[in-house]
Specification:
Number of strands: 10
Distance between the termini: 68 Å
Largest sheet: 6 strands, mixed
CATH topology of one domain: ABC transporter transmembrane region fold
Radius of gyration: 36 Å
CATH superfamily of one domain: ABC transporter type 1, transmembrane domain
CATH class of one domain: Mainly Alpha
Shape: elongated
CATH architecture of one domain: Up-down Bundle
Bound molecules: adenosine-5'-diphosphate
Length: about 575
């Protein structure tokens, strides 16, 4: 039997509530049958005397009537209980699962996000949780409860008259067989529907995110068509899927209810042979009109359950993704970084090939090389966004694969090209560097990296909101804010991705000044694109197609006349001028 708890990533409490829900539904079903059973008994009590010629036992009939009423009242009560137990707990549980997924996503290694795009994650969090909510509130309690009720009723009826019970349920295995045998086919169409649904959410997300470009370049028609196509495909596939699954359910239902004919056929034959009394026959005919209810519900719920198993598959995979773990209370004795024979691949192809490099503390080490040579990858491996495939990276003599990623990140500040700013005040955006920093600390950091002057002239100074991802700021200003953030964090290691886009000279000077303030006295790894800015770095490591091809000081490398010298000269020529400016004093 499958593990329901694991299947739908339920919490311990959610699972307990779910079991209570099933119990409540069984109770509700059984109370209904109490009422029904009493009515049958009543009919028998009324009809028996007609056959036997005795008097009607009026007292018994009234007692049965009373018991039937009590059963109906119980059913009403149990129904209310069932609603509370299954529905409200399912909604509460789905919320918990959503939060747990969000927390899980936060702790996943970045490699995971490499494989999943954002809309898939959003779908996971919203849609899959909604599906789980639906399964837990509408599908599973009914499914489990109907199974239990059906088995109980079958047992009781067998006890009553096993021959008629066989006639009643002879078609049961065939009808359920149809649903199970066609599971593969249902899954095939179900999967196509799930894929189409994902494509729609991709398209919606893309359309909304790219709305500026869509408008600017007049792509409205094209993008809209793509979205419309995705929606049409979903509609088509959903209809086909419903048709296929619905078809199987209908056939199985018809076969199941053919049992009613069998009851009459078997009953009449037994009657003729005098092997069955007419009252029992009548009772079975009456029962056969009602008994298939829970079984028919089961026949409908099973394919629905299969479908939800499919559509929550991603959620299960997400929850099973391994988190990067490591020791949390680590204090590194120093910040010497050493890469020992490291190799790494995002997918199949190796993009870092057996690199060994020492990055001494309190110095500037530049990673240079053509685009795609692996500079960013190396810096992100050092921050343990991914784990290396082979080899080892150590900081202060500790292998970073044994250090908790968040602890490790506490030692590092990042200044990336693609600055991420939040739709919040300037103050809070800088404070991200150090959550408990006082206002004065934030001002001081902003002053040091030359942010203060442009922030003060903003409408509300430091309390100005800066729009989604800092859309109200210039590129240079955004970068300086991110440098202020890093400075505030005051981490001993700084990973710096130099901007590729050229900034205007004034901004460039300001940024260089800001960076100089940031890197003072720290261990700095800079991914350099403009080589003149790092010619005076303490160490330059030159990468080419994932391999370390040269290392040394700028002077040494220029004298050597290798790849670095070649790249350097090309850049100088293209600039048409040659002024050595010291970025890192
Ligand atoms: P650089 O920083 O030198 O431009 P990168 O480290 O970004 O180089 O990339 C090195 C190689 O890895 C390139 O071939 C690039 O296409 C590939 N790569 C980079 N990032 C990813 C990623 N997230 N997923 C798959 N491949 C990637």
């Amino acid at each position: 039997m499958f593990n329901v708890k694991k299947l739908f990533s339920m919490t311990e409490e959610g699972y307990r509530n779910f079991r209570r829900g099933v119990f409540a539904t069984v109770l509700s079903n059984l109370t209904l049958f109490i009422a029904f059973g009493m009515i049958i008994q009543m009919i028998m009590a009324l009809l028996d005397p007609l056959m036997t010629g005795k008097d009607i036992d009026t007292i018994r009939v009234w007692k049965l009537f009373g018991a039937g009423l009590a059963g109906a009242a119980l059913h009403l009560l149990a129904g209310r209980n069932e609603y509370r137990k299954t529905y409200s707990t399912a909604y509460g549980e789905a919320e918990k699962i959503r939060l747990a997924v969000a927390e899980h996503i936060r702790r996943l290694p970045l490699s995971f996000f490499n494989r999943k795009d954002l809309s898939e994650l959003t779908t996971n969090m919203m849609d899959d949780c909604t599906s789980i909510e639906h399964v837990m509130s509408h599908v599973m309690p009914g499914m489990f409860a109907d199974t239990i009720t059906s088995v109980l009723i079958t047992a009781i009826l067998c006890f009553f008259d096993w021959r008629m019970a066989i006639a009643l349920f002879a078609a049961l295995p065939v009808s359920f067989g149809i649903i199970f045998i066609t599971k593969r086919i249902q899954e095939r169409y179900g999967r196509r529907t799930v894929e189409a649904k994902l494509e729609v959410s991709n398209q919606v997300q893309e359309y909304l995110e790219g709305i500026k470009v869509v408008k600017a370049f007049g792509l409205t028609g094209e993008r809209w068509d793509a979205l419309k196509d995705a929606m049409k495909t979903l509609m088509r596939r959903a209809i086909v899927f419903e048709g296929v699954a619905g078809g199987f359910i209908s056939v199985a239902g018809i076969i199941l209810q053919s049992g009613m004919g069998l009851v009459i056929f078997a009953g009449v034959n037994l009657l003729r042979n005098g092997a069955l009394d007419p009252v029992r026959f009548l009772v079975f005919v009456l029962i056969s009109a009602k008994i298939y209810g829970p079984f028919l519900v089961l026949l409908t719920l099973l394919p629905e359950f299969f479908f939800y198993l499919l559509s929550t598959e991603r959620m299960r995979k997400l929850r099973e993704e391994k988190l990067l773990s490591g020791e949390e209370n680590v204090s590194l004795p120093n910040c010497n970084i050493e890469l020992k024979n490291i190799s790494f691949a995002y997918n199949e192809e190796e993009v870092i090939k057996n690199i060994s490099l020492v990055i001494p503390q309190n110095g500037v080490t530049a990673l240079v090389g053509p685009s795609g040579s692996g500079k960013s990858t190396v810096s992100r491996l050092i921050a343990r966004f991914w784990d290396v495939k082979s080899g080892e990276i150590s900081i202060g003599g500790r292998n970073i694969s044994g250090i908790d990623p968040e602890t490790l990140l506490g030692y590092m500040s990042f200044v990336f090209q693609d600055v991420v700013l939040f739709n919040d005040t300037v103050m809070n955006n800088i404070r991200i560097g150090k959550k408990d920093a006082g206002d004065e600390e934030v001002y001081a950091a902003a002053k040091t990296v030359r942010c203060d002057e442009f922030i003060r002239v903003m409408p509300e100074g430091y309390n100005t909101r800066i729009g989604e991802n800092g859309s109200t700021l210039s590129g240079g200003e955004r970068q300086r804010i991110s440098i202020a953030r890093a400075l505030l964090k005051n981490a001993p290691i700084v990973l710096l991705d130099e901007a590729t886009a050229s900034l205007d000279p004034e901004n460039e000077i300001l940024i260089q000044e800001a960076i100089s303030a940031l890197v003072k006295g720290r261990t700095v790894i800079v991914i350099a694109h403009r080589l003149r800015t790092i010619i005076d770095a303490d160490k330059i490591a030159v990468l080419d197609r994932g391999e370390l091809v040269e290392e040394g000081s700028g002077e040494e490398l220029l004298a050597k006349g290798g790849l670095f010298a070649r790249l350097y000269n090309i850049q100088q020529e293209s600039l048409g001028w040659s002024v050595a400016r010291q970025a890192f004093p």
